[in-house]
Amino acid sequence: MIARLQAVGMIEFNSIAVGIEAADAMLKAAQVAPLIIKTICPGKFVAAVHADVASARAALNAGLATGASTVVDHFLIPNISPEVISALSCACEHVPGSAVGIIETFSAASAVVAADTAVKTSQVSLIEVRLAMGLGGKAICLLSGDVAAVQAAVDAGSSAVGEAGLLVRKVVIPGISPELLPFIM
To answer: Which parts of the chain have pLDDT scores under 70?
Structure first.
């Protein structure tokens, strides 16, 4: 069973040093718990916390104030989908459905927003949200299900990040080759 988090706030920084300083400010600003705090490629830093909405917002605001000009992207998602939390840790072991959808973004934070929007829009499974490690600073989310559901989810997730100019590409592959799956998961 996946625990439900009330709200998640994440900030992506282009400076590791300032990212660490801002993460400290986030944790001190409100009663929040760390979710993800780490360096990502290429030389960026991401800090994500979870708590009730007001506390997550207070922590996010403290991190944004500390990070200032080093902030690449950020979000606050109240009632984040539990599938997103699971996919951040690569907890999916198989790919249900006949189609795979991929949303590729320019930032780690925008991939989480795209994934959350996608799974709340359509009956799909979230395979993984991969945050900028070995991706040149970009991020991807992988979804699966029947072709129509995956297409609807990919369109919705892409729209959520496309408005901010953070969408690189979106792809839906109907009937993906089973031999390919071990190489992308």
So the answer is: 1-4, 90-94, 134
What is the predicted pLDDT for the residue at 25? 97
**What is the residue whose two structure tokens read 């990919």?**
154
DSSP state of 146: -
* pLDDT the model gives residue 2: 47
DSSP-derived letter for residue 106 is: S
Do both 55 and 93 map to the same domain?
Answer: no
The most distant pair of C-alpha atoms in the chain lies apart, rounded to whole Å, by: 48
Structural domains in the chain (count) = 2
Q: Are 46 and 12 in contact (CB under 8 A)?
A: yes
pTM: 0.84
Residues in CB range of 17: below 8 A, 6 or more apart: none
What are the pLDDT digits (tens) for 155-184?
999 999 999 999 999 999 998 888 887 777
Question: Does 22 map to a domain?
Answer: yes
| CA–CA gap between residue 102 and residue 28 (Å, rounded) | 36
Q: Which one, of 129, 161, 162, lies nearest residue 143 by Cα? A: 129
* 128 and 98 in a common domain: yes
Q: How far apart are CA 153 and CA 144, in angstroms?
A: 9
